[in-house]
């Protein structure tokens, strides 16, 4: 409970800075530090600890399965919506906030040992989906061109992805460097949460029914379906638990930014990202308790 309150505190700090005389690109500056420094440092520490056992496939396959399920449900529930609104939901429902918000939330709910599996889910799932599927949705619904070369370049040059490959090849970092890498890694949680809070938009538009249905779909229905499937398959280890919680994260901030930039229901997109984070502070701990109960 203390960790959840700390997350809420940092989110409020970030949100309150919106009303101070901070530059508009302050959140972007924090994001760049997290992406180029904090996140890679965390990967360099955690990836060598990953146990490459038969259960790791769960964290790799699940995000792509959730993507397919999410797209299907969006078309089932919202197929009659205007084109731009549908495009926004096709970005925000499948793509979850599995790193900037997901890592701190998992550390608070499950513990630091969850991060190594969350990295696999995020880098081989969410990040690749954003770079490929996200680019396709924006290009298709905005009438722009989809460049396979640009997508591939973005993936290969993404700093956390470079750190992931490096850590996998090299293994544990030299002992003398670990204290310094740990210092940089410790900046991930506070900076990421302040950045998330600074980026939050809480103004609701006229699409309150769509907003409520979408949050229910993203934060309740889809996680419950995934939990049900995992229970049928008797998947109850740490990898499965972390994967389930990652699949329960609120809409991704970057996906929301893409939707807003493309003109896909900007106010609805901003509200889904902002309120999704707030609501998930309640839903994720409850889902974790449900997972523990089912695993008994």
In words, what does this structure look like?
The protein is mostly helical. It has a single domain, classed as Na+/H+ antiporter like fold (Up-down Bundle). It is 74% helix and 0% strand. It is built from 14 helices and no strands. Helix 2 packs parallel to helix 8 and helix 6 packs antiparallel against helix 7. It is globular. The protein starts with a helix and ends with a helix. The relative contact order is 0.18. The model has no long low-confidence stretch (mean pLDDT 88).
Annotate the secondary structure layout:
Elements (H helix, E strand, L loop, with lengths): L1 H15 L9 H21 L10 H22 L4 H10 L9 H8 L5 H28 L5 H9 L2 H12 L7 H8 L2 H12 L8 H25 L5 H9 L6 H10 L3 H30 L1
Helix pairs in contact: 1-5, 1-10, 2-8, 2-9, 2-10, 3-6, 3-11, 3-12, 4-6, 4-13, 4-14, 6-7, 6-12, 6-13, 11-14, 13-14
- Main pleated-sheet profile: none
End-to-end gap:
22 Å
- The 3D shape can be described as globular
Q: How many domains make up the 3D coordinates?
A: 1
Q: Which structural category do the helix and sheet elements fall into? A: mainly alpha
Q: Could you give the count of β-strands?
A: 0
pLDDT averaged residue by residue: 88
Radius of gyration: 18 Å
Q: Order of helices and strands, N to C?
A: HHHHHHHHHHHHHH
Low-confidence regions: none
Estimated share of beta-strand residues: under 5%
CATH topology: Na+/H+ antiporter like fold
Going by CATH, the architecture would be Up-down Bundle
Number of continuous helical runs: 14
| CATH classification class | Mainly Alpha
- What level of helicity do the residues show? over 70%
